[in-house]
Design a protein that fits this description.
Layout lengths: L4 E7 L20 E4 L5 E2 L2 E2 L8 E3 L2 E3 L2 H7 L2 H4 L8 E7 L4 H16 L6 H14 L13 H22 L11 H26 L22 H19 L5 E9 L11 E9 L8 H6 L12 E11 L3 H5 L7 E9 L10 H16 L2 H9 L8 E2 L6 E3 L9 H9 L5 E14 L12 H11 L5 H8 L10 E7 L2 H5 L12 E2 L2 E7 L3 E14 H17 L1 H12 L4 E2 L5 E8 L9 H9 L15 H6 L1 E5 L2 E5 L3 E7 L5 H17 L1 H23 L6 H22 L8 H13 L2 H46 L14 H30 L1
Helix pairs in contact: 1-3, 3-4, 3-6, 4-6, 5-6, 5-7, 21-22, 21-23, 21-24, 24-25
């Protein structure tokens, strides 16, 4: 057996092999073996965390470094120099069971040469596999198990070493980076762990391969090398049970949705609801995550996947140095540990970025500009909310603490299932009406019209271009005019809007107006911000719409000053025209419909959108997937373009998204206005028809005839089935027309008009019939007189005889006839 000295070097878990050769780096070389660290799988380095899929050997899945070392011994042996006397192992800090077992197997290889998988070794490897897959749960009846003891070694050794260092005048504090201390600590863990494995290998040699001895309480009954660790384990487990299941617990069982790991490997994303534990205060037990992961009493009988654990609360910052820099205030900070079970298929990727955004937002509300600069300078530029491990299963607070409260941090986690947005634009679209006879008095902004004309070019079909711009300068009048109102954004939106505080929302500082010749128009302006969480986007949409409705008088006054005549703001027809670019790291395909539904309905974050009545058909109705990176959603209140850079070629997809964003605001917006103007005018005609009953007599007919003429003229110039040759443009036009129900309203208006025409024709016909009956006796008498059947004798003078009696009889009959029809007509109108 070779006499070989083994040494150990411990690095951070996320460290990778560095072959640069620079001083202080660790690269591959002879007699140096990376195990469970380095993110490489080759000769001299065995790690599996970087692998996209597990390695299968002899139909067995290798999900531990120990299994890989046993399956590929050549990766260790081929990296040894001839007659090597000293071998260095590079391992991750806080070595766990898998790390210790992999070193144990590698040392046996080096000492004994190539070896097969013995029954003892197979049992140990299977035990590690069960640990890494999360199958080993805690049994309170026998806590003296290998992994429990190994997990407790660090706590016991750490206390001993700190006491030893303190006796030498060296204080090891929380977060300290004393290289000598950590090297000794992790070496002691490794040596104790290897000694335990020697005992286990000897103990299991007399048992069958499948007897489960490593999960038996009999395994370590006679082992006393880790008695301190065992006492700590027993005491700590009972503390955990009291905290989680006791009556006065500061720990609460929770359900939380987290994204699956596959979503970041290009597979369609789904969120998974998992069981978790949330501590509201610092736990009494030392190993809360360890017990939570292996708690068989969890609701799903599979342990608690998520844990939220405060490290310290309301800790006063040492502000002596800060005061010297004129930060005259007391500051308290908090720290938490956020983690998920690494054996489960969920991730915290994206949460660190979201927490850092919210951290900086709160800093801006707490400190003024000078103080903020001092506060930020207290730590390195890279120190913030970040991931402790490469696979996004642990998140750490900033090393100097967070000014977010414990509850604020947890609320952000609850919102983690919602996306983070790189860009958000809200265009407020406000329709108005005016007297169409004043259209020719409007002086358009030539520069604005030319700019818009240049943008759209030949995008629209010729008659649409003429409709908007009269590009060919024909004699026909242009149907709309463009104006720009330069105004202060806060006055524009209303003084009650709090979104402008601390630059939470910004405005483009001018407002554009389109006035149509039919007596309608729209005023619109843009508001925007970047790097917003989902709840902030909901708040912006809700508050902007609410404040705009409260500011209609301001809008009307500004338009009157610009147009020189009064307008009527159509508050009930206000629209939101949104653009959103989502952070691909927090994009959840399964949440897309619900996300768009809430944004499009301007549902504020404090409103419960679940109280709204909707079904899957309603959510699907407004959704169009333009491509894999762009989605369009529309309803009666809003239009939303939602983009996310999910492609493999990020640069190419980003250019496509930028082009679509440009078209959405420059070209598609005019299509949106075309559909909206059609709806407004059709509704206006419908209202005019509804007011038909106010007109009387001949003026009623004139009213209907004028309305018919205006409607036919409007239909001739403003109702189109084809407006562009662009497929996306036509897709959006049809969707907006469908959402605004323009075809249905158009049909209803013409149906109303036809019904009124038929009614008027019937009424005229009935009146003519009455006149016919009234004049019937007169015409009859005239005929008698003409043929000489009745002799005409003057009523005044002459003799009173039969001829005069006949005359009076005829007059009386005619008067009675006419009175009868007048009476019948009166009762007919009364009854109807």
């Amino acid at each position: 057996m070779k006499e070989i000295e083994f040494s150990y070097k411990f690095v951070k878990a996320e460290s990778i092999v560095d072959d640069s050769g620079l001083e202080g780096t660790l690269g591959l070389k002879k007699d140096r073996i990376f195990l469970d660290a380095g993110n490489r799988f080759e000769t001299g380095a065995i790690d599996y965390h970087q692998l996209k899929s597990p390695i299968v050997v002899d139909n067995k899945v290798c999900i531990s470094v120990a299994a890989l070392v046993a399956a590929f011994p050549e990766l260790v042996l081929n990296n040894l120099s001839e007659n090597a006397e000293r071998i260095e192992f590079v391992l991750h800090r806080s070595p766990d069971m898998d790390c210790i077992v992999s070193v144990y197997i590698a040392q046996k290889l080096i000492k004994e040469g190539m070896l097969g998988i013995t029954p003892q070794l197979e049992k140990i490897i299977q035990y590690v596999k069960d640990l890494n897959s999360g199958r080993n749960k805690i049994n309170s009846d026998f806590l003296k198990m290998p992994n429990n003891l190994v997990y407790a070694i660090e706590e016991i050794e750490s206390a001993k070493l700190k006491k030893e260092f303190k006796s030498k005048g060296v204080e090891i504090t929380e977060g300290a980076e004393d290289e000598q201390y950590f090297q000794l600590l992790y070496e002691n863990i490794m040596l104790k762990g290897l000694k335990l494995l020697e005992y286990i290998a000897d103990k299991v040699s007399g048992f069958a391969a499948n007897d489960g001895i490593l999960n038996s309480p009999l395994l370590l009954t006679d082992y006393h090398g880790l008695d301190e660790e065992y006492e700590l384990i027993k005491d700590d487990y009972h503390k955990y049970c009291r905290e989680v299941y006791g009556e006065n617990s500061n720990c609460k069982q929770v359900k939380i949705k987290l994204p699956l790991k596959e979503s970041y490997a290009g597979v369609d994303e789904q969120l998974k609801e998992v069981d978790g534990l949330k501590w509201s205060d610092i736990p009494e037990c030392v190993f809360p995550e360890y017990w939570a992961r292996r708690d068989g009493n969890a609701p799903g009988n599979d342990g608690y996947v998520f844990t939220f654990i405060p490290v310290y609360k309301n800790k006063a910052v040492d502000t002596k140095l800060l005061r010297e820099k004129k930060l005259q205030r007391e500051v308290e900070v908090n720290s938490v540990r956020i983690a998920v079970d690494s054996t489960k298929n969920v991730t915290l990727q994206g949460l660190g970025e979201l927490l850092e955004v919210r951290e900086q937002e709160k800093e801006q509300t707490v400190f003024d500009d000078d103080e903020l600069s001092v506060w930020r300078d207290r730590r390195s530029k890279t120190d913030g909310w970040g991931y402790e491990l490469w696979d996004f299963v642990n998140i750490a607070s900033p090393s100097e603490g967070s000014i977010l409260s414990i509850e604020e941090i947890y609320d952000i986690i609850l919102a983690f299932e919602k996306p983070l947005f790189n860009t958000f634009v809200a265009r407020i679209v406000i329709p108005f009406k005016y007297d169409a006879n004043l259209f020719e008095e409007i002086e358009p902004e030539a520069s604005l019209q030319e700019g818009i004309n240049k943008e759209v070019g030949n995008y629209f079909l010729p008659y649409i271009n003429e409709y908007y711009f009269n590009n060919k300068q024909k004699n026909s009048k242009q149907i709309c005019k463009f104006l720009r109102v330069k105004t202060d954004s806060i006055k524009l939106i209303g003084s009650d809007c709090k979104l402008f505080e601390n630059n939470r929302v910004r405005n483009q500082n001018h407002t554009d107006v389109i006035v149509f010749s039919h007596g309608t128009g729209i005023i619109y302006t843009d508001f925007y911000n970047n790097n917003l969480a989902f709840d902030k986007v909901l708040e912006m949409n809700y508050e902007l719409l609410k404040s705009s409705k409260n500011a209609v008088e301001q809008y009307a006054a500004q338009l009157k000053d610009k147009l020189n005549f009064a307008v009527s703001i159509e508050k009930e027809y206000m629209k939101l025209y949104n653009y959103i670019d989502a952070d691909e790291r927090t994009f959840h395909q399964s949440q897309l419909k619900g996300t768009l539904y809430r944004i499009a309905n301007a549902i504020g974050n404090k409103q419960d959108y679940r109280a709204l009545v909707f079904n899957e058909e309603e959510k699907n109705k407004g959704l169009i997937q333009i491509n894999r990176s762009a989605f369009f959603y529309a309803n009666r209140l809003s239009s939303v373009l939602y983009t996310v850079n999910t492609g493999s070629d990020k640069t190419k997809v980003r250019k496509r998204i930028e082009g679509l964003e440009h078209d959405y605001f420059k070209k598609h917006f005019l299509i949106f206005i075309l559909a909206l103007d059609l709806q407004m005018n059709l509704i206006k005609y419908a209202i005019d028809l509804a007011n038909y009953g106010k007109s009387k007599g001949a003026s009623s007919m004139n009213h209907i005839n004028g309305l018919r003429e205006r409607l036919l003229n409007f239909t001739a110039v403003a109702v189109f089935s084809q407006i562009t040759n662009d497929d996306i443009g036509m897709l959006l036009y049809r969707k907006w027309s469908e959402i605004f129900e323009n075809k249905l309203i158009h049909k209803e208006v013409f149906t109303q008009l036809s019904a009124l025409d038929e009614f008027n024709i019937a009424r005229v016909s009935r009146r003519m019939e009455k006149f016919s009956w009234i004049f019937l006796p007169i015409v009859t008498l005239s005929a008698f007189f003409c043929i000489g059947w009745v002799k005409i004798i003057p009523l005044v003078g002459g003799n009173m005889g039969l001829d005069k009696s006949w005359w009076y009889i005829v007059i009386g009959v005619c008067v009675a006839w006419i009175a009868y029809f007048i009476k019948m007509d009166y009762f007919y109108k009364k009854d109807n």
